[in-house]
């Protein structure tokens, strides 16, 4: 795999800061455990150089007319579309996702999201009227973006596209497991003709480069996606420095199947939602809630649906050995706490590669670890409810609130239930992904929103002029 041995800073690929040459991160293909490349492990010095470049570029980019910023974003969309195959191949190599999923989702979604901001700028007004005031919407400044590995390019674009649209400049620290697609993105930004320093990339370890970026005094806003543990730390750092922060953290979303729903469809779509990307989706509906009268029928349907996810074929590996161990540990814990193993189990299904069996648990009670904690693997828990109030209590009964689904006989019934859910997104009777819909969490799933106009607003601050 192609890998740069430098950082993309100030519009060029630069060697890492002096004295640290040779410190690299090995990138491993999780399907066969082979090293496919090395990227530099950046330090606080590299982060500082990148933040300086972003700061120097900020006044010029902030003053660039929105139509010109839109033109650059449209060019970026076109480069991402033209290099779709290369992007999909890179994500398959470093994340392990099956080629069809890499093409449709990992490579396809970023094109849609970059395009949505190019289009949005055409009709967006950076000025509002409020009585005798004119409110100016101005870019926040230099953004530090820290992203995870599970949707490696989507999560970069969901931050970079609105930040650049708003007129902010950016330093990105991508996940150490998936830095190659981040380098590819930097190439795309370069090819799209953004001015030097508007976008900068520093690869490196979270506790070193990531932390240096979050702590840097000249970063105005930190936008983070990843684990709740690291999110808490970043929130504390930002709070102490009184800088803006957006946190997109974990989830434990509920897929609520009400009695009038098309049960087979609700279960099949629900299983597919959990198994996609090997379960490494923060918004995955990992808890399926079924009425007691339909419970065993749903369990049998889920077992059948899960059988289609053959490891090494439709089901990819997990990203690394640590995640594989973590997920296997959760499966063992589910058995230990008394859940009924319908299919799957903790044993690794293949000798090579970080694979986990597609696993379905029944008789899961709301207090079990597998019903409360984010597993981040291909593991579905099916819970039983007695009536709607019971279903609502269970659905809302976690510290998270990122996404969810409701299936019912009528749309009205599903919407009435969705209104009572403590969560940031709900799919109604199988509603499709919408790149314009705000995405983000209630409760401990996070702070702030990504995508659409709400995602753009995260990177703007207001100035009121009174007349
Ligand atoms: P993580 O939170 O450690 O990593 C996410 C990003 O934060 C990476 O870029 C990492 O380098 C960086 N980071 C790590 N420590 C940091 C620090 N001290 N300061 C600044 N940046 C830091 O996540 P992980 O260890 O890769 O995954 C662990 C668990 O997190 C998963 O099992 C899953 O439950 C959850 N997770 C959630 C999401 C999501 O989309 N919400 C994504 C990835 C992981």
In terms of DSSP E residues, the strand content is 15-25%
Structural domains: how many: 2
What is the radius of gyration computed over CA atoms, rounded to a whole number of angstroms?
22 Å
| Helix fraction bin | 40-55%
Unreliable residue runs = none
SS-based class: alpha/beta
Strand order of the largest sheet: 14-15-16-13-12-17-18
Number of strands: 20
Mean pLDDT metric: 97
Bound molecules: nicotinamide-adenine-dinucleotide
Shape: globular
Report how far the terminal alpha carbons are from each other: 59 Å
Explain the overall architecture:
A hairpin with a 2-residue loop joins strand 1 and strand 2. The strands form five sheets. This protein has a seven-stranded mixed sheet, with helices on both faces. Strands 9-8-7-10-11-19 form a six-stranded mixed sheet, sandwiched between helices. By secondary structure, it is α/β, with parallel strands linked by helices. The chain has two domains: 7-249 and 445-466, Aldehyde Dehydrogenase, Chain A, domain 1; 254-439, Aldehyde Dehydrogenase, Chain A, domain 2 (3-Layer(aba) Sandwich). It is built from 15 helices and 20 strands. Nicotinamide-adenine-dinucleotide binds next to helix 7, helix 8 and helix 11.
List keywords for this structure.
467 residues, Aldehyde Dehydrogenase, Chain A, domain 1, seven-stranded mixed β-sheet, six-stranded mixed β-sheet, binds nicotinamide-adenine-dinucleotide
């Amino acid at each position: 795999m192609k890998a740069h041995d430098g950082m993309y800073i100030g519009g060029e690929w630069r060697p890492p800061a002096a004295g640290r040459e040779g410190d690299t991160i090995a990138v491993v293909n999780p399907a066969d455990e082979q090293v496919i490349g090395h990227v530099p492990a950046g330090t606080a010095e590299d982060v500082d150089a990148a933040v300086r470049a972003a700061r120097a570029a900020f006044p010029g980019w902030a003053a660039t007319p929105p139509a010109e910023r839109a033109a650059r974003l449209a060019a970026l969309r076109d480069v991402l579309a033209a290099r779709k195959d290369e992007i999909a191949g890179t994500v398959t190599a470093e994340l392990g996702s099956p080629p069809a999923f890499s093409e449709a989702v990992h490579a396809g979604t970023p094109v849609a999201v970059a395009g949505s901001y190019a289009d949005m700028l055409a009709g967006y007004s950076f000025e509002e009227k409020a009585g005798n005031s004119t409110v100016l919407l101005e870019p926040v400044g230099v953004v530090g973006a820290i992203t995870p590995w599970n949707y490696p390019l989507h999560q970069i674009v969901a931050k970079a596209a609105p930040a650049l649209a708003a007129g902010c400049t950016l330093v990105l620290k991508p996940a150490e497991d998936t830095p190659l697609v981040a380098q590819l993105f930097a190439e795309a930004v370069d090819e799209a003709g953004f001015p030097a320093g508007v976008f900068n990339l520093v690869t490196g370890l979270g506790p070193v480069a990531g932390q240096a970026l979050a702590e840097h005094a000249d970063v105005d806003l930190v936008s983070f996606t990843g684990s709740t543990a690291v999110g808490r730390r970043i929130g504390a750092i930002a709070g102490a420095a009184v800088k803006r922060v957006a946190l997109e953290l974990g989830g434990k979303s509920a897929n609520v199947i009400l009695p009038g729903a098309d049960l087979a469809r609700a279960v099949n779509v629900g299983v597919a939602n959990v198994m996609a990307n090997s379960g490494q989706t923060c918004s995955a509906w990992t808890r399926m809630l079924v009425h007691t009268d339909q419970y065993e029928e749903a369990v049998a349907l889920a077992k059948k649906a899960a059988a289609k996810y053959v490891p090494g074929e439709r089901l990819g590996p997990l990203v690394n050995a640590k995640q594989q161990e973590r997920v296997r540990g959760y499966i063992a814990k589910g058995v230990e706490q008394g859940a009924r193993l319908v299919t799957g189990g903790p044993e690794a299904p293949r000798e090579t590669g970080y694979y986990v069996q597609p696993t379905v648990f029944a008789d899961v009670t709301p207090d079990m670890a597998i019903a409360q904690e984010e597993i981040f693997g291909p593991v579905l828990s099916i819970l039983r409810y007695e009536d709607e109030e019971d279903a609502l209590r269970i659905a809302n009964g976690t510290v998270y609130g990122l996404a969810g689904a409701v299936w019912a006989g009528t749309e009205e019934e599903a919407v009435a239930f969705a209104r009572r859910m403590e969560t940031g997104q709900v799919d109604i009777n199988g509603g499709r992904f919408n790149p314009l819909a705000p995405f983000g969490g209630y409760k401990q799933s996070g702070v702030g929103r990504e995508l659409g106009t709400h995602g753009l607003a995260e990177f703007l601050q207001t100035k009121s002029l009174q007349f």
